[in-house]
Amino acid sequence: MDPDEFRRAGYAVVDWIADYWTMLGKRPVTSQDPPGTVAAALPASPPEHGEPVEAVLADLDTLITPRLTHWQHPGFFGYFPANTSGPSVLGDLVSSGLGVQGMLWATGPACTELETVMLDWLAGIMDLPQRFRSTGPGGGVIQDSASSATLVATLGALHRASGGRWRAVGIDRRYRAYTSTQGHSSIEKAARIAGLGEDGVRPIEVDPETLAMRPAALRAAIEADRAAGDVPAIVVATIGTTSTTAVDPLPEIGAICAEYGVWLHVDAAYAGAAAVCPELRWSHAGLEHADSYCFDPHKWLLTGFDCDAFWVADRGELIEALTVMPEFLRNAATESGAVIDYRDWQVPLGRRFRALKLWFVLRWYGVEGLRAHIRTGVALADRFARRVAADDRFDLAAPHPFSLVCFRLRAGDEASAALLARVNGTGRVHLTHTRVGGRYTLRLAVGSPLTAEEHVDEAWELLASAASDVLAG
Amino acid sequence: MDPDEFRRAGYAVVDWIADYWTMLGKRPVTSQDPPGTVAAALPASPPEHGEPVEAVLADLDTLITPRLTHWQHPGFFGYFPANTSGPSVLGDLVSSGLGVQGMLWATGPACTELETVMLDWLAGIMDLPQRFRSTGPGGGVIQDSASSATLVATLGALHRASGGRWRAVGIDRRYRAYTSTQGHSSIEKAARIAGLGEDGVRPIEVDPETLAMRPAALRAAIEADRAAGDVPAIVVATIGTTSTTAVDPLPEIGAICAEYGVWLHVDAAYAGAAAVCPELRWSHAGLEHADSYCFDPHKWLLTGFDCDAFWVADRGELIEALTVMPEFLRNAATESGAVIDYRDWQVPLGRRFRALKLWFVLRWYGVEGLRAHIRTGVALADRFARRVAADDRFDLAAPHPFSLVCFRLRAGDEASAALLARVNGTGRVHLTHTRVGGRYTLRLAVGSPLTAEEHVDEAWELLASAASDVLAG
Asked: What is the rounded average pLDDT for all residues in chain A?
């Protein structure tokens, strides 16, 4: 494809996306087609001779788009948001066009340096502790996801807890990881990948009201493990748990980690974005105790997946844990010690130029634009929660400090599950569920920049009406 | 950014990329600016108020692009290629615009099914063993990189070698991984991440001529470890090693793995693409013994990073190793057992719709277009190697079955290193180095679709001329 063919086809794809976004609100949010529909409609092998882009776009319209869950839809309220925006798409497009590999500083100097500066910019507008800024011994990097951030933090923690032995001998003791019963499944997965096993993860009980970790229970678990000869390696605390956006008490947890010399990683995958707003920074109190911290601009900060922003207080420790230096990667810049090679901060070797999409987003929206986006989400969630609270068939299941509302029918689990199925079946909205205190609970998470009051109101009306049907049946 | 703003700005970015590709050959391949140049030129914080896209594109031209290593440049011959193409960029642009999360089938049915079909398409045109097709117990998935593929294979191998214990208890024995001394650094990194430690990786000696693994040495290492009570878990064989594109003897290695019940992973990150050409499939002989296999369409198959194609012979085993099921991800489709949830095939939870770029590439080029691209690379490398062989100041350091040529000056390491520095200093080409048999060796890897005979000839002329200077000095 020569540059002029690319230009023509590129305009067509840009138009396709603009049209998709324009009409998105009129589509069903999810597909009702059974498994195998797409696969059955595709040929068994690729064409022998090339085809024009128009043919692929036509199939995109008929085969693919109707069988998607539309995450950017204004009626998508499932999971946590994973939103993108025009400037993010454009920054990523530039990245695709440049096709630069940022594994080493030398393989893309501007790719590395823009990333360092973008993470400093984010740390600045979120007022993160100085220890995470690149001007000191810390610094930030883009990971693909909070799952990978947790894994990388776990590896740094093992390196530290072993006194450096782990690099050579691996797991030769029972290292332990701690998180609340509300911690994300990626914490168990990271521990499993790192060779700690499921037994290596100690679930710490939470306060039944706030659903936040109980520091006393954490201390007791660490003490018990130490008494058994096990090695406490890492505590993963959460700002904004996945089920209900609970906030663990970092000041107390941080003090315990400091006392026992345990690495503290703070997972703020979804709720971290809230820290761009001064009035929501209470959620980050105590973060100065953390050895590492991450949040996902690709969740609630208008930057397309994948973009997890991960910071460490001591980058040297992380690099020591992860670096491997084969001859074919040796280069003068690395040996000078004056540069960052981000391959040593992550699992993979290769890496895209992901800082570009952050740069485009931060400059297009400006700080005030990002704050407006967060505040809109919080206000819409609050608007929805007030409807729920005013209807005595419903209960709010947990506090809603951010843009997630957890609620259920007082009639019980079966009714709540039936309500979810019924409202999702309309195709107008998509919500997901969790369990809170063992009870089936619906979650409505606001995040799409397309979501406005009318969509939240429609969601409520659909729920209220479906509740009548469910409770009548 | 509303759809019409996106349309206007999108055209501008498409034009920017088309112009970049048009003028790319006239740029220096690398930047000569010292570390910190980009960071120093950027402001300390993002703007308070938003800025137009034009302002960002202007800074892209003045600040960023001049300080890149241009991986798509026709004179880029470093490392292995990491090339993209117009259709790949467009497929990825659609993915960015859709902003779909493919973690579960339910969160993007077409995202999952297109991926399964694309991996079957690739398996078909490469004539991969039937065991890797999704129609049987195996199947394929897109990983970000071969590093992650090796890690995931290692986890599957640990699950198997432990008889299922590993999920619960982690690393409680000395599991061992085997690869040749020419194996990629990501194998050591995967073993370290998985908790085996550097000691857990056994480097197996190679034939000094072919640089391929010696099966007898592999057998001896496995026997020695078993005798010591260690548990051989995985052998990573390579088709196309990073230093010299050596090909390990899979039939013999496969037989040994079968005898001892060890997982065989085959890493064909770069050279796997060659299997689209029937005349290069000799390199894949014996692959039917492998438990897993990967190659990178993002290296030599015109698909932008990240796109590693990874197959397993038994998907159930891999899923068992990696799955974690929290309440908030439960859904009817998963519970039906009729769908694939690709989150269970990889480290992260979230995932982009990366199958789109493969779909665009496979359809735009067709099978014959992909074969033509591979054959061009092989022919250009051979053309270059003939120049080297005809100049008695130079030696070829290894066979060149694919598109990589390894060579050095007979005058020794210092002269070869000086030659590399001098020729890269011209800014017209970029080569990297390795060591072969302990000796400093230059590598010229062809891969860019922009690279033609004139560029390879220019590279040779620059090298021949620089050699005269080096040898005279």
From this structure: 97
Identity at B459, one-letter amino acid code: A
| d(C-alpha B269, C-alpha B309), whole Å | 9
Q: Per-residue b/e over B250-280, b at no fewer than 16 CB within 10 Å?
A: bebbbebbeeeebbbbbbbbbbbbbbbbeeb
What CATH number does the domain containing B47 carry? Answer: 1.20.1340.10
**What residues have CB less than 8 Å from A386, skipping those under 6 apart?**
none
B63 domain residue, yes or no = yes
- Residue A44: exposed, middle, or buried by beta-carbon count in 10 A (0-12, 13-18, 19+)? exposed
In this structure, the answer to whether residues B340 and B414 fall within a common structural domain is no
Contact A64 B243 (CB under 8 A): no
Range of the domain at A298: 100-352
* Domain membership flag for residue B94: no
Residues of A in contact with B170 (CB under 8 A): 171, 191-192, 194-197, 199-200
Looking at the structure, tell me whether residues B176 and B40 fall in a common domain.
Answer: no
∠B464-B466-B471 over CA atoms, to 5°?
95
Does A391 fall in a domain?
no
ipTM value greater than 0.90: yes
Q: Most B CBs within 10 Å: which of A16, A45, A104, A442, as the mutation test of the B interface?
A: A45
Helix or strand (DSSP H, E) at B141: strand B139-143
Number of domains in chain A: 1
b/e A434-459 (16+ beta carbons within 10 angstroms → b):
bbbeeebbbbbbbbbbebeeebbeeb
Low-confidence ranges of chain B (pLDDT < 70): none
Band (pLDDT 50/70/90 cuts) for residue A390 is: very high
CATH code of A136's domain: 3.40.640.10
User: To the nearest whole angstrom, how far is the Cα of A423 from the nearest Cα of chain B?
Assistant: 15
Residue A342 has pLDDT above 90, yes or no: yes
Question: What stretches of A164-212 show up as alpha helix (H) in DSSP?
Answer: 166-169, 185-193
If you measure CA to CA, which chain A residue comes closest to B70?
Answer: A100
Same domain, B254 and B387: no
Q: How high is the pLDDT of residue A392?
A: 97
CB within 8 Å of A465: residues ≥ 6 apart: none
> CA of A344: which chain B residue's CA is closest?
B189
Which amino acid type is present at position A230?
A: D
Partner-chain contact B170 A189, CB within 8 Å: no
Residue A327 predicted with pLDDT over 90: no
**Mean pLDDT (whole number) for A6-18:** 98
Distance CA A275, CA A283 (A): 8
Residue A374 phi/psi, 5° resolution? Answer: -65, -45
Inter-chain residue contact B53 with A360, CB threshold 8 Å: yes
Judge contact between B351 and B105, C-beta under 8 A: no
Chain A hits for B120, CB-CB cut-off 8 Å, are 44
Are both B115 and B53 inside the same structural domain?
Answer: no
Residues in chain A with CB shorter than 8 Å from the CB of B198 are 167-168
Beta-carbon contacts of residue B470 (< 8 Å; ≥ 6 apart) = B409, B411, B415, B418, B419, B422
**B383 with B347, same domain?**
no
Residue B306, classed as helix, strand or coil, is coil
Alpha carbons B258 and A452: distance in angstroms, whole number? 60
Please indicate, yes or no, if residue A31 is contained in any of the structural domains: no
**B430 and A107 Cβ atoms separated by less than 8 Å:** no
Give me the residue from B48, B68, B333 closest to A367, CB to CB.
Answer: B48
Percentage of residues in chain A having pLDDT higher than 70: 100
**Residue A294 — very low, low, confident or very high, per pLDDT cuts 50/70/90?**
very high
Nearest Cβ partner of B101 from A120, A305, A327?
A305
Q: How far is CA A462 from the centre of its chain?
A: 28
Are A156 and A150 a contacting pair, CB within 8 Å? no
Q: Is the dihedral of CA B328, A250, A81, A132 positive or negative?
A: negative
